[in-house]
Amino acid sequence: MTTITEGMTSAQFITALNVNFGLLAFPNSSLATITSSSDLTAINGNFIILKNETYLTTNIFALSNGMTGSDFINALNYNFNNLNLNINGANAVLTVGTDKNYKTINTAVARAISGNTLKIDAGTYNEHIDLSTKRLNLIGSGTLETIIYYTETLSPTNIFSTVSIGTNSTFDNIIFRKLNNNAANSHKEIISISACNPEFTNCEIQSAQSDHRLDIMLIQNSSNVTMTNCIFDCNGVLFGDKDTLITVKDTSTFTYEGTKFKAQILAQNSSVVNIDADELWTGTGTGLHTIEASGTASITVKINTTHRGFNQASNLEINAWTEKLVLVWLEGDNTFTLNGKLRGEITVDGYNNTVLIKDVTADTGACRIVSGGGAHINTNVITIDNSHLIYDFDDVAIGLHNIEDTMGCVYKLINGTILEFSGYHGHAHTYGQPIASSNGGTVYMRNSQVIQHCDQIDGYAIAISSNGPVDIEDSVITCDDWDGNDAHECLIVSLYQSHINCRLKNVTFNNDTGTLGYAVYVYLAGKTLDSSDYICASGLINNTLATNISNDMTSYNTLLNHCTP
Question: How open is the CA angle 310-451-488, to the nearest 5 degrees?
Fold first, then answer.
């Protein structure tokens, strides 16, 4: 804002007036251009327009021909300064509402400068907000009583995000939504963020089934987004890959802390995702999962209270043991850490993924880890640390396991971890095991337990049908049959695929499944042992009803003789 002085020439005076009026005016203001220093009608008229537009309560001094030079100058500067201080000051607060200075958010954004705060009354504002260049602070009213809700249409073409952010703006106590009436797949997400570091506090992002074909957030170009005490409540129906999706890419970081996380995350291109949620929801259906990662992404998830499942078509909550829930799907070169609760599946598909499941307890059962068909030998490492994972399936189902299709993964069970396959909740004849290792999978156990508890025929706690080594120490393996009539084995080692390489130290085998329930079952699969096959065993405790520790003592002793300390 230019200060008017008595020493100005007529040309300087006119220029200063027009510059100041230009800074104050709304884009659609019809302010007169000043052409003469004596054109008091135009000057006074502009001040009146500005006062009416901004509803300022300060009085405006009308300029008159009878004023002395100094009075005239003082009146001009008084008018400009009061307008400026109420509109464009560095710490200015602009109020939005039906009875406030600004009736819409966009009119306030247009008048504001970076650093200003917009206090927005309760109500629904159907607007597209562009904060690509101005850094503003938006504050809602009440308890989530301010809703910004943009309607996207194809005809006329109105394809925008509800909020587009390119600055380090902040948002507090606001609900963000968007309705997509666009029949085509061309659409924008609810919130678009690029190359900036915005912060959200006490906010909620919503989508309903009627809001279909919507992504929720796009975070790109090295942005760093922080959400504190926020809620994602997104119930849209899946349309291809257009649904309740938050995409984080281009080395961006997304950090969320809140009470309810009901959305999907796609992490790409060296992005970082941190989620700390009281409730985390996973939808059911082919291709549905809460988190998908590809391209060296790093993801940390903490579920404090419960991991819940819902049918994405009906939005009704479902039981984990009757529907398949996939919490996370990992493609190549990703890091994933989980703390807290798990009610569902972790699928590892691809190369070089590192997974840490630490301090996790089962949330009503159905917890398992699957290495998909894309995994390759010794490229994925999955560690389960001080966790209790239960798979309790309500079905006469077959081929179910806590850990299955290891596909060359290295599995580490450490620090008091318990894997338990159980039929407690459902049918006694559910067929499955805690660990089914194949295709080169490695099993490493320290101070942990594996428990198989159901009434299937020929069940087992751990089955190794691969050339991956088994290394178990200071651990317990239990088979517990409901009726005691079936033969269950604690540990099966097999030549089915390749070699038997097994080290056992201070391992307790508990088996009450009858006289044919062995501690270590050797299966040659029609092949012959050679010197590369071995079992190293010391300090074993065999609490079984079987006379021998193994079904094939000849082969078992041969394997012991092949052990090289």
Answer: 115
